[in-house]
Design a protein that fits this description.
PTS ascorbate transporter subunit IIB, 4 strands, transport, alpha/beta, 25% strand, Rossmann fold
Amino acid sequence: MLKVIAACGNGMGSSQIIKMKIEKIFRKLGVQVSIHHSSVGEAKTQASNYDVVFCSEALKGNFANAEKNGTKIIGLKNLLSEQEIEEKIKEHVIQK
């Protein structure tokens, strides 16, 4: 089971929306995941405990240490785009 965290500035609105969209897409793709959402500050300290971090493109730099430790950091240009999220999951998370 993949461990995923969705992060936004305050850990409320955007990260909750991303979380719901990620859950929907992983379910559609038949992948079991455990998904949490939080603020960037909180996610930054926990990111290395996750397989994948989803955040806005502008926040990716906050997770450089986790990325060095093997966590995949996926920056989104449009947080509301299920198409973008699905494409990035297929490209970066699901290895064929």
